[in-house]
Amino acid sequence: MSMIVESTLDPKNAVLDQVCNAGDPWMAEVKKGQVFRILDLEGNQAVDTLFYSAVNPEERYSAVDTIARQAKLYLTTGTVLYSSEGNPMLTITADTCGRHDTLGGACSAESNTTRYDLAKRPMHSCRDSFMHALNHCGCATHRQMNKRDITANINFFMNVPVTSKGDLSFADGISGAGKYVEMRAEMDVVVLISNCPQLNNPCNAYNPTPIRLLVWNA
Amino acid sequence: MMTKFNPENVLWEEVVPGGNHWSGLIRRGTALRITDLAGDANLSALFYNQEDKLERYNMPDTLKAQHTAFLTTGNVCYSDMGRVMCSIIGDDVGWHDTICGVTDAAMIAAKYGTTTYQTHRNEMYRSGKDGLLIELAKYGLGKRDLVANINFFSKVIPDEAGNLSFVQNNSKAGSYVDIRFDMNVLLAVSAAPHPLDTGTTYQPAAVKLAAWHAGPVTKGDICRNSCPQNTRGFVNTERYYL
Questions:
Q1: Does B78 touch chain A (CB under 8 A)?
Q2: How far apart are CA A57 and CA B140, in angstroms?
Q3: How does pLDDT run across A10-23, given as a tens digit for each residue?
Q4: CB contact residues (below 8 A), chain A span 175-204, against chain B
C-alpha cells in the first residue's frame, strides 16, 4: 500500500548534518532547490514539523491545503506540501517509511490535561518546545514569530490511520531505525521541528529518541 | 437543565446567503441552531476566545482528544489551550468535516469561472478564504489567524490508502446542527462551497443562524460525558471562568 522510495544522496556530501536530541526543538533555513532529509535514528520517533516562507512567514505550511488540494490524507513520496497561499513549499522526493500524518497536530501541556489527566500538565511537550524555539532561535526571533504562527503541523513517521467511518487512532509506529523522509524545497523555507517528547501514547514507542537532519545543495 | 431549541425562544436570527460571510460574539450559554436552507450547504466556521484571541479552535486537538476524524452530536470543539469552546448538542446531518479547509479565489475561478461585482453585483462568486479574512480583519485578525476550520454540513471520507471523496447530498434542505457555546466566542463563518465539492455550478445554499439561551453545561450533558477527555476539557473551561 505504501510506496518505499530510496534516495541516491550521500550523507558525505551534505552541507548540513546535525542530530536533534530526544525531546528537543530544532530550527533552520532550507533554500529553494536544496534537499532536506529527516532520519529516524532509532525508530518509531514522531517528528512534529512546520514550514514557513523564509521571505514572509505569514505564508506557512497548511495541513488543510495539503490534504484538500491533493485529496489525500497521508503524506509520502510525490506529496506536495502546500502553503496557506496555495503554493508548493516542498515536495517529498524519497521516503523509506511510506506514510506520514498531518492530522494529529502537536502535543501540548494543555492538550495533555484533556487527553490523559489534569495532572499531566508539567510533562514536556511539542508546543512547549515550539515556544522555546520561537523565543531563542534567530530564525524565529528576527521574524518576530510567536504562537500565532503555530498551526496544524506534519508528524513525520507517525501513524494516524482514519477509517471510512471516520474513526481516528494513534497506532503503533510503522517507522524503524534508519528510516527517512526526504524533500526538495520549492521556495526558501524556515523549518521548525519538535522532536516529540510525548510519553503518554505509542507515537514514540514510549521512548523518545534522537533524529538526524541533513541538507544537500541542489 | 439545558434548554433545547424551541422556535418560540429564539433571540435573533440571521440568514447568511450562499457564498456570503458573517461574524459575531456568541456568549457562553448561548446556542445556535444552524440550518441548511436549500440542501448541500457548507458553512466554514472558526472560533476565537473573545478575551484572548490567541486562543482559538484547534482541529488536531479536537480530533485526537475524541479519536474522530469528523464532528457530530456529542463532540466538542477544543481550543489550543485545552478548553471546550463549544459543543455539538444536536445534529440531524451526522458528519461535519474539519480537515479540508476552505476555497480561495483562484480555486473558485478555476472551478466556476470568474465573476466580479461590476458584472454580478452581490451575486458575485466569493471564496471561503476571502470571506473569513474579511470577517477576521474586523477584529484585528488576519492570515496568521486563519487556522484549520470546520465545514458544517460537508462530508469527506477516506479510503484505506487515504484517498478522499466528497459525499454528495450529505445535508438536505432543513437539516440543522445545534452548537452550544461554552466560552465567549468570536464566531466567523463563510457559506462558500467546500473545496472538494464536486458540483460544477456556483450555487452554495444559504444558511440560517438562530440563537437561544441553552444555559450552562450540566453534569449529565451528552458532550461532557461522551468521553473522559471531554469531562476534563469542561473542567478546564469552568476553571477559566471562576
A1: yes
A2: 18
A3: 999 999 999 999 99
A4: none
Closest to B214 measured CA to CA, from B182, B240, B186, B175: B182
The Cα A156–Cα A106 span in angstroms is 11
Q: For A194, phi and psi rounded to 5 degrees?
A: -115, 115
Q: What's the predicted TM-score (pTM) here?
A: 0.98
Cα B112 to the chain's mean position, in Å?
A: 24
Domain count, chain B: 1
pLDDT of residue A203: 85
pLDDT at A3 exceeding the cut of 90:
no
B57-68 mean pLDDT: 98
Give which of A2, A64, A84 to mutate to test B binding, by max B Cβ within 10 Å. Answer: A64
Q: A207 phi and psi, to 5 degrees?
A: -150, 85
CA-based nearest residue to B115, from B197, B40, B201: B201
- Per-residue confidence band for A2, with pLDDT thresholds at 50, 70 and 90: low
Q: Tell if the CB–CB gap between B61 and A105 is shorter than 8 Å.
A: yes
- With a threshold of 0.85, tell me whether the complex ipTM lies above it: yes
Which of A98, A100, A96, A120 lies closest to A108 in space, CA to CA?
A120
Q: Which of A54, A146, A111, A28 is nearest to B144 (CA)?
A: A146
Given the C-alpha cell 477559566, which residue does it identify?
A: B240
Q: Scanning the structure block, which residue is given the C-alpha cell 538526524?
A: A212
Nearest CB neighbour to B54, from listed A148, A164, A167 = A148
**B228-240 and B59-66 helices cross at what angle (nearest 10)?**
140
Contacts of A10 (CB under 8 A, 6+ apart): none
Of B78, B195, B230, the CB nearest to A68: B195
**Predicted local confidence at residue A98, as pLDDT:** 94
Residues of A (14-53) whose Cβ lies below 8 Å from B: none
Looking at every residue in chain B, the average pLDDT score rounds to 97
User: φ and ψ at B105, to 5 degrees?
Assistant: -60, -40
What's the pLDDT tens digit per position in B192-205? 999 999 999 999 99
In this predicted structure, what is the pLDDT of residue A172?
A: 80
**Chain A, 70-129: which have a CB under 8 Å from a chain B CB?**
71-74, 84, 86, 99, 103-106, 108-115, 117-118, 127
Which residue blocks in B86-223 are alpha helix, DSSP H? Answer: 105-112, 117-120, 128-137
Spatial contact of A4 and A98, defined as CB atoms under 8 Å apart: yes
Please check whether residue B155 lies inside any domain of the structure: yes
Per-residue pLDDT, B2: 83
How many residue contacts between A and B have a Cβ separation below 8 Å? 140
What value does the mean pLDDT take over residues B130-155? 98
**Are residues B236 and A117, on separate chains, in Cβ contact within 8 Å?**
no
